[in-house]
Structures
1.
Amino acid sequence: MKKMSKINLENYKRSSIEIEAQSLNIEKFINLLWKNNIGVKNIRKKDLTTVSLEVSLKDYLKVDKISKKTHTKLKVIKRKGIAFLFIRIRKRNALIFGTVLFMCILYYLSTFIWKIDIVTEKKLSPYELRRELTSYGVKEGIRKKNLNIGDIEEKLTKNNDEILWVRVRVEGSVLKVVAAERATPPMIVQETTPGNLVAIKDGEVVRVYTTSGTALVKKGDVVKKGQLLVKGEQGREGNIYEVPAKGHVIARTFYEDVKKIPLFEKVKERTGNRVKNIYVSIGNKKIFLKKEMNNFSNYDKIISKKGFLITEECFEIQEKNKAINKKKVIDNYSKEMINKIKESLDKNTEVVDEIVEDKAESDYIILRVLVVGEENIASQEKK
């Protein structure tokens, strides 16, 4: 705070500092502050020779002079007010100026294009496009405001027959050029070999679409695997000619799974009878402190060790038949069976219905699930 003498503190009337003052005659120091009309607040005595107090920043130089007269040692412990921010800023003019200058240079450099990124396909070379852009005056270091994106795209498309379309965009300091090539469409070879469409599985016909050949089935027909669906013939009677049968026969297909579930499950329960043995193990020998005969045919054994003593407890158990939760078991098994069927279906099969049926039989439940799908069952007949 000694450097504050070089700053006009009268301009900072609303800022204050908290000072710790230490003197053998602290009362004299405080009285002199009041006598010189220095506003003092929040005086707190810490010990016989030390107090803390709050004064206005504009009075700091006066306080400093009085402290020298009374041989009082001052220590600033807290600062309040925006004045200290301005004081720090004034001390860091070079840093602020450098930061502003750096931002200005950075902004200026961002107005230029420093990289041209060209993306093409197989035949078109990025080098050719870069050379063509250079002929238009577009190269690294050009000002962004001198770029006419629409004009560049039009010139590239017009002057190069291999380009189908081109997109030019400015992304930061990068000029990105993406070009698509013209491609000769592949020749489509039409199937000319006559043939029929047959069913690859059983189903109930829902819809029939044919682009070539004569449909032999209609909506509602139930067909079997291998049955002829679309015949490779067209024309009227007396003028019939063979063609390759093409089309789709959408049918409802059925996938079934059956499971036999027992109505009772075996559970083990403790009867309450118990045998307890206590022994000490030395080597391979057991020295029993308490021993009871175990006559249980089925039991659970629990062994616990505490120090040298080993406790062995045997609890008699017996098996009982427990009725299952019918609804819960049917729900769990049916979901598992349906999910298993769905996993085996072709990805083009659309599931339209799920049917679950259960029937009690003796000590069992006969669970039947049926998944109904819609799919194309027509396939070219193999010869």
2.
Amino acid sequence: MNPSDTLVFFGATGDLAYKKIFPSLQSMIRHGHLNMPVIGVAKAGWNLQQFQARARASLDEHGGGADPAILQKLFSMLKYVDGDYRDAETFKQLRQVMGNAKYPLHYLAIPPSMFATVAEGLAHSGCNHGARIILEKPFGRGAKSARELNATLLKYFAEDAIFRIDHYLGKEPVQSLLYSRFANAVLEPLWNRNYIAAVQITMAEDFGVQGRGSFYEEAGAIRDVLQNHILQLIACMAMEPPAGDGEPLRDERAKVLSMVRTLSPADVVRGQFIGYRDETGVARDSTVETFVAARLAIDSWRWDGVPFYIRTGKCLPISCTEIAVQFKKPPQHVFREANIGRCNHLRFRLSPQVVLALGLRVKKIGEAMAGTSVELIAQRHPRDEMQPYERLLLDAAHGHSAFFAREDQEEQAWRIVDPILGNKAPVHLYTPGTWGPQEVQSLLSAGECWFDPVSEDGPPPA
């Protein structure tokens, strides 16, 4: 499989490039992973010097500072094409700047509405020959648009040349979660409906839309997080053991997503933080959700009857991504304790710390046979780990697709959420700094409660 010999990224003057791509390019050079020309394409009226200045500013603000030697090498690699994506002349110019490149990697860091336009422009100019293409989320706005976009892309690129990026799959903690599942035999006998009572996934942010009100009006929490990040985490948690890495990983992720029951409005609670409608770009009567919680079911032998509770939102108490696997209680209360709460759980914290914790009951010191909950914690503070975009750009450049979404995965994910898009379920207001609207309690079965993440500097969850 031939590695890519040129990286072309559309949207080169945009926010994503500024915050993520340039810092990733610096890191790739530092680790010896980038040795090909990098061509930025955008319509900004810029020249190469202005483009280089943008790269320097990005590294100063988001890359930990520009390393002079790395910056010099990056500048030697950078090229720039200024033009409209709807203009065939832009792609003719790109073809010229690409020179003798035979295996370009085209990265579309642009609005999804322009994906088809750019794919067609690449094809008509011959820039798709031997090429791979990376597309940012969201991949479509619903099941129908995702199918239409797939059909368009497949006219010009083979499926194995299409890389639908979800940066969460490139995160070191997420890959560690997947590794831990299948590298430890102690987990497999417990990883099923016989021992697991419920699974909870919380993806929380303690800030609002940060001036991106217009974007959030178009996206909302369901499209922005649930349809992609959270469903990919569920796939990693619930998938069957793959036959190996690479394509078998994608096979099993697609298989488990096909078994996730389609959501209905009764399965979800949508929320909006008080003050969202005052944000720039937000309608005064907006009903877009900044919070969503849901109860999902997986119709498989392994997971029958095990609820998967998810929630994600902005202006919540802390910024944190955490998975809590709640095990069933012992069948008999030997020591006659009236209310022991949770007994055993396995907690994966994926950000901002990396934590694996096992919750147990132990005896309190004293005469009474009474216990308390404790956690055995394995905690890691990685240094200089590969950032998600660095890892995924490198994987795509070498044609490694294991941690990218496949066509069938995307269509299954949209199938799951399609019936709850828009205003199918009412939106409830919630106060910033809380865990969403009170209505989320209605999703839980009797006797259950939400597993609220806390700061790792404080006490463990009760």
3.
Amino acid sequence: MVPITVSLMTGPARINFHHPHLLGIEGLSASEIETLLDLGDHYVELNRRDEPAEPLLANRTQINLFFENSTRTRMSFELAGKQLGARVINMVAEASSIKKGETLLDTAMTLNALHPDVLVLRHRDSGASALLAQKMDCAVVNAGDGSHEHPTQALLDALTIRRRRGDLDGQVIAICGDILHSRVARSNIHLLVTMGVRVRLIAPPTLLPPFIERMGVEVFHDMHAGLKGCDVVMMLRLQTERMSGSFVPSAREYFHYYGLDYAKLAAAKEDALVMHPGPMNRGVEIDTDLADDINRSVIREQVEIGVAIRMACLDVLCRERGKARKQNTEDAA
């Protein structure tokens, strides 16, 4: 398939992404990931220069359907769509007919009848976005499904690192905390391993999935050993809402062994970056002073870059959808 040429002269010359949906990082090639990162990089620069993006989504409808609470992801998808000229509709499950007993599939049928161009879905159940992608006529973007994947978070994390380090290949990156329940961890592992990163996971045994080493990662149970020589440290939130039973003795003890502070960070490289997808539990998984340290923490930068990455994802999906429409029209003629 011939790559699509981007009309923005300052943007990437070609788009190598030919999927109707973005349901996860697993299955994407390195070149497809690079395409999204390159286009995201372009939108970062446009946004920082306060230059308007080409209204590629003009007269297109984007529905954001969130079944779980969200601040960063929902707002950045809304802003991303509006920056590209889309009509953006935010639908909160708590205020919908789902509260009256309507099923997810019935909701999908209703939304499909409104002829949206893209649906951004966050759902508590793994596989929900893949299910709707089979039932909807529009592009579906997974904004987080259960403990499965959160692809745009991994993409914005990767772009944050790449902009600071220049490249991903060869970096040593530690992902620390609740790996077991984290969709962010899974998407990041898929992406980073694909891009040639040496990935370390640091967590207590109770917060690690079985056989996780098969994903091409190294596993540590000690922060000092796992952080030794790392270029980047990604901290994860304890997903207490997904836990049944006790996975850690107490928040205080968890921070003592697995919370990131300056003492533990000293084992990493002197210029190691500190990341967190948010929301943060200060004093549980990360020290407050370290989280706010502008010389080490890129947490605020992650939020900023999230808008640009989501613009890139909406861009390529709507381009692909427009191309498919054109082909269908030509075939019908």
4.
Amino acid sequence: MSPRLHVGTYARNGGAGLHPLLHSAAHGWSVGDPCAEVQNASFGTYSARHGLHYFVDEQAEGTLGAFRENPDGWQQLARVSTLGAEPCYVSLNADESCLAVANYGSGSIALFQLDDRTGLPLDPPTIRQHAGSGPVQDRQDGPHAHCACFSRDQRWLYHADLGADQIIAYPTDRAAGSIGEHRIAYRAPAGSGPRHLAFHPILPFALLVSELASTLTVLQIANGTLAAWQKASTLPHNFAGESLAGHLSLNSAGDRVYVTNRGHDSIAVFAWDEGGSLELLQHMPSGGASPRSFVLLEAERQLLVANEEEDNIVAFPVQADGTLSPHDDEIALPGAVFLIVGQR
């Protein structure tokens, strides 16, 4: 049985809220009725410890909502301000005792402690405001936090800043639930626009996707610093149009990497070997304009992508070698922007 998925939608593009995405052997994927309370959910995460989903509302003056999915529908348990504009990323630490949010518009991150009993975010959060800019005037006029995530060993909270072309690291105190003074962990090439950071499940490497440069950079991790190891384009070598790199994810073994290209409208698939080297395997057309987010279902051997400007969700079979076959299912959904696996 396939897992239950949820799709966040943008109201500005006709989205009606958070939709369930259901699968049947006879009919494939289908969209259910939306929960209108979960608006503009462009990113979210799920806490198995607390049985809660946390979704950012990117448009409503920067808010974070905590929701429980019950048999009779969704229950909103809390809604708090992220004390910043356009929150676009949210992540939990390993023991799910705190949660980090990246506020894209204001260039800040918010760290919320979670109530041990309820899992609800405790107000107010710790705020770290950043500074800086880059040479791409319409996108790098100031700091733009696009990712806030914890290192695998939980010693660091990293923040990828698209506007300032850098990754910032904060030392974390797990006992106190606090973060220390920042350091610059990595200075990205000027104008590259760091977007998302992901960590290898075993090896001391991380991957950075840079939106404006459409590149993947392998970073070697050492005590909170990140050193460039290899860089690869997410685009075909002969592509000359405009494109922006998007979502990044790895399989559970860490040997396959998936990243979207918005403009080229494709999903790039890479092999990632134990030495840290990337090898491009494939560019698969995404089945629509501007592939924004995707979810990889390894047990079901499927990858589903939300094409933001096409108002659809497309499902691809995943082959044994991790490459994608042409899509075999397509679902129309206005405003589709984000996909998340729900509670099983």
